[in-house]
Amino acid sequence: MIYEGSSLSVKLLQDGIAELVFDAPGSVNKFDQLTVNELAQAIEELVSNSNVKGLIVRSAKPTFIVGADITEFTALFDMPEQDIVTWVAKTSQVFNRFEDLPFPTIAAVNGFALGGGCEMALACDFRILDTTASLGLPEVKLGIMPGFGGTVRLPRLIGADNALEWMTTGRDCKADKSLAVGAADAVVEPKNLIHSATSMLHDAIDGEFDWQARRLQKTSPLQLNANEAMMSFSTAKAMVAAQAGKHYPAPHMMVNTVSKAAGLDRDAALALENQGFATLAKTDEAKAQVGIFLADQLVKSKGKKQAKAATKVVNQTAVLGAGIMGGGIAYQSAVKGTPVIMKDINQAALDLGLAEAAKILTKGMHKGKVDAKKMAATLNNITPTLDYTSINNVDLVIEAVVENPKIKGLVLAETEQHVSDDAIICSNTSTISINQLALNLKKPERFCGMHFFNPVHRMPLVEIIRGEKTSEATISAVVAATLKMGKTPIVVNDCPGFLVNRILFPYFAGFSQLLIDGADFVAVDKVMEKVFGWPMGPAYLLDVVGLDTADHASSVMAEGIPERMQKIKNDPVTLLYQAQRYGQKNAKGFYNHSLDKRGRPAKVAADEAYALMSEHCADKQEFDKEQIIARLMIPMANEAIRCLEEGIVDSAAEADMALLYGLGFPPFKGGIFRYIETMGLNNFVKLADKYADLGPIYQISDGVREMAASNQSYFAQ
């Protein structure tokens, strides 16, 4: 044994071949501080060992190395920028010393080699991948850039254009594509990986492969003339500007860094990378996106733990109420392999539900993501029916009828008479109290909410709502079923609107009051989309949700939380609804909706909407962007805080992920609680107090005032 640590080891095999094996404690290999330090020690032992003629780098796990240990980033990013430069430069020098070993090296890659794992492979002279392998530099998804030499070595191996596409999108590249662009030297079956790597290394040792020329390619300037460089980097800058926009600094920094480093050798280019990494690490966007990653890990691990506790397995599902929503839920169950019975009281609704599933599949076929076999299997998994007898033996029933408590109550009571004693019953309600609906059931312990978001096949979140009498066994089984459907479950406690809609409707109320005070809804949408970063501004979102749906839901919220969410007199949403302007569903709302020449949705501000609002709203006036953002986001933030304080949601991290997955909260802001903390709790309190006279939704709780005064964090461990 040449070197043995807790995360990696090096031993000498035969014929002068040494093997560096990554095998960290736990399920995957990561580049945490311990592993980096052990790699540095292993390199020193290899340099001093005259018996080594070549080195294979491999993993003892099902995947190579998944990247850096993101949990270490929070403390790292809190350091002064120059300290981060020093840290990342020190780490990247370890990779340099590895690259400079006095003999050829080859990475034998299985599974994922991402981030630092990919950079480890790039530091080798050769890379051989098995057919399961993927290479990738996904740091952009964390708001940062590669820091261990990725921006230097990858462009010199596969060209600046290909490298920038990899890095600015963060997508991983499968083995065959990696081979095609030159990131890999060979692709073999998994069983042949080590044998083929050994054979290739012998060839390099024997001089059949010029490993020193390969190394020189990575340590020299990019081979681009002035015209090629100008074209390449101009195109990359335009692509990043179009796709990432101004809210994400990381891809812009990558393009600029690779461009500036094009004429430099490795060490000078690495100095630029080190500085770029540190600069990005200090941005709010990086902290937000790292926060999202950690919150996502929390939600996933919590979901897996809850699912593991399930004692009931869902092998067949039923959906009550076909239509677009029911059809979407049925599709989601069927496409993930769980047969589903779709029941309604009339054939036209069943036809609509089946058509919805077929439409989703057809779009998938057009994009090349679904083949005929997948389409047939999915549709065959959906059984339409007009009577209850077909649901006698299902494991899970999801009620998705009209959002009316009386109708839902009747359907739930009827359902309970036709299912087995241990079947779980759920309601896909968006606002109606689960405790109220549970009164219709004889066995409320097997009942909970299961709130999907529209469109079901695209929205990742499912809110699972625990009622007062819901058993933990029911929650665990529904969490497991949700994961099986390919969705992200977040368990919340019952209250009007649950978590997401309860937080959303004060935002809508702030918007309505802003219009009443004279704001132009087009201007508001523009600020909330272009400046704040929402995928849709509030007027457009209301049109998509449906103004009839929004008006009904606001009435439910007003009844449930009258102290803050009472109906607004002459609410523009209500005015439009009463004029039968329902939004996208009938092509008229705040905007008039149509399809353009390519069949894509198009919208234009409706003169009719302005006319309906004019006599009830103040004369039109301009509000600056800070006012618009504050008047919409303070109510949302306040209600999120109250949900956490009341125990509706267990953690700020889960609330952030719920809004990200359920509403499309701007990822570069990290979620509602990350947004508050980035602003600073004291600053948030001052801002909210400035607008407190606008009404209860702007008035903060005593809890947040106390947290601000004592300098606490919603993300404290």
Automatic annotation (TrEMBL):
Q: Which UniProt keywords apply?
A: Fatty acid metabolism, Isomerase, Lipid degradation, Lipid metabolism, Lyase, Multifunctional enzyme, NAD, Oxidoreductase
What PROSITE patterns does the record tag this protein with?
3HCDH, ENOYL_COA_HYDRATASE
A Pfam family that this protein carries is 3HCDH
Q: Which ranges carry the 3-hydroxyacyl-CoA dehydrogenase NAD binding domain? A: 317-495
Record-annotated 3-hydroxyacyl-CoA dehydrogenase C-terminal domain positions = 497-592, 628-694
Q: Does the keyword Isomerase apply?
A: yes
Q: What is its EC number?
A: 4.2.1.17
Write down the InterPro entries for this protein, in alphabetical order: 3-OHacyl-CoA_DH_CS, 3-OHacyl-CoA_DH_NAD-bd, 3HC_DH_C, 6-PGluconate_DH-like_C_sf, ClpP/crotonase-like_dom_sf, Enoyl-CoA_hyd/isom_CS, Enoyl-CoA_hydra/iso, FA_oxidation_alpha_subunit
Top EC class for this record: lyase
Pathway field of the UniProt record reads: Lipid metabolism; fatty acid beta-oxidation
Catalyzed reactions: a (3S)-3-hydroxyacyl-CoA + NAD(+) = a 3-oxoacyl-CoA + NADH + H(+)
Q: Does the keyword Lipid biosynthesis apply?
A: no
Q: Which family does it belong to?
A: In the central section; belongs to the 3-hydroxyacyl-CoA dehydrogenase family. Belongs to the enoyl-CoA hydratase/isomerase family.
* NCBIfam families linked: FadB, PRK11730.1
What name goes with this protein? Answer: enoyl-CoA hydratase
Q: Which organism is it from?
A: Paraglaciecola algarum
Q: Which gene encodes it?
A: fadB
